[in-house]
Amino acid sequence: MSSRSLPSALVSLALLLPLAVDAQTPTNGSERASQTANSTTGIPTFYAHSRQVIVEAEVWDHVDNRKADDASWVPQGLPASLTHILKRLPPPAHGLTAKDFNLFDNGVEQKINYFKEADFPAVGVTTDQWRLDVTARGIWGVLLPSLPGLAYASSATYLIGYVPPAPQPGECHTIQLVVRNYYAQLNRTQYCTLKNSDAVDAAMPEETKLETRMRNFANSAARGSIHVSTAAFTFWSSGVFSLVNAPSSNMNVPVLPAADFTYVVEVHDSKAPATVQVVTEFTLSEQMWDYPCPKNGSAVHILGMVYKPNGELEGQFGDTFTCDMVTTPNTEALMKIPGAKVFTPSRFDTQMELRPGDYELRVVVTDGKNFGRARVPLRVEPFDGRQLTISDLAVGAILRDSSWVVRDAASVSPAPLVPTPLVSKNVQFFPAIDASLRKHNPLSFYLEIYEPLLETGDPAVYYQLRITDLKSGSLVMNTGPMSAADWVVPGNAVIPIGLKIDTEKLKAGTYKLEVQASDSAARQSELRHASFMIKR
């Protein structure tokens, strides 16, 4: 399957509709009744056991095993020069089974407990414009130009899972794959467990000097040459990943039923810290890197720190994106073209756990030479798990089908996936900092309603939207209370809602979106708001 554009249903056809993406539909698991309706109305499916490892393999047939003039697998409509290159590559090997694969962890063959041929584009383009590269500490976003055919070359991609012996903290394991009579390439050849929860120390162990420079820059008055902007969104829920309910009776190894992974969202209690989603956008002075990557390595580094009002460091995150993170066997062949380049990232998504209070978030981005930073106030409000509550509004620009979450996990498991996916009705949501829309484009946003009465009963839950023109002060939209029943998962106190609003009738200008929840017990949540702009 080639990556497809968002369907016309996502373009402004109605005033208010649930988000939908015409892409791969996940198969729901069968372990939890509330998650297994096999429809698009539930929380999408995904599992990840605490020791579950998932790897992604692209598999090709040998060139000698096909006719020299067989180009049936090559995408149509490519320039002749690119078609000539692709025809020289081995064709993808579709239709293999788990019996064709031998998987080794530290040299010991493993029992495969999950196997699926996944229909993904070869280069990992997950939306029409963005490639999202996942690490154990966050998700980097690379904005791509329109490259029909080239970016979506066909491949045979397999997701393979196993449960290795329990690794020790800081231990690294090698992964090897053998596919008899085929050529295979894994997305990674090792995984390592963190020594501790200090992501910065783990992310840049050999760059203490650079890290010191980044900290000093964050605390200085300098602005730097890299434009950086950041925003944070508070939620009182977390994604819970597990593979199966119970291990097999004979080997203490989980065995999957004939279903897919399941992803469950759980609400926090009042004592737990909030989940704070942090998104950072930046513009590097060098927006393309030479390929093949230079020996000294082109890279971009990010460091985020949260300070209390008294100047005490409360928490931090950090990660590094290197030039070689964007390559695959197919792109390696294509990028042998003289003067080839790869695009640099321009955003980073991650999350932190913070207790209620007032903070300042400082984020620094550097390519090793140039620096940039952003500072924003951050307030985390207290959470009462007994009351009807609503999360922050995350107004966004990047949407993708949630079935990609399993591929994200294949990049980092057995480490947890960071940030916890924001998912509603099979659509994953990535917030934007600057919610600016071209006229005639819909406004999409994500929020969560927390209704504790859903854990024991079946109350009616409602939400109401209002939009105000900030220039005139006039109310341009007021929906009145609308039912949230379509997003309710029985027994789950979290109601994840992703919506789009038709802005066709709104003039160019700046607006305020307000959302409030209510229920049949006559309770109301606080009012949440976010601003957005419509351009001419």
Distance between the termini: 36 Å
Rg over CA atoms, rounded to whole Å, is 24 Å
> Could you describe the largest sheet, including whether it forms a barrel?
7 strands, antiparallel
Poorly predicted parts: 1-47, 148-152, 197-206, 243-259
Roughly how much helix do the residues carry, as a percent range?
Answer: under 10%
User: Oligomeric form of this entry?
Assistant: single chain
**Derived structural class:** mainly beta
Count of β-strands: 34
In short:
The chain is mainly β and 536 residues long. It has helices spanning 80-87, 199-203, 208-218, 329-334, 405-412, and strands at 16-18, 53-60, 101-105, 108-109, 114-118, 130-135, 138-143, 157-162, 172-179, 183-186, 190-192, 227-235, 237-242, 262-267, 274-283, 288-290, 299-307, 313-322, 341-343, 347-354, 357-366, 371-380, 389-390, 394-401, 422-424, 427-431, 436-438, 443-450, 461-469, 475-478, 482-483, 494-501, 509-519, 528-535. It has one domain (8-535).
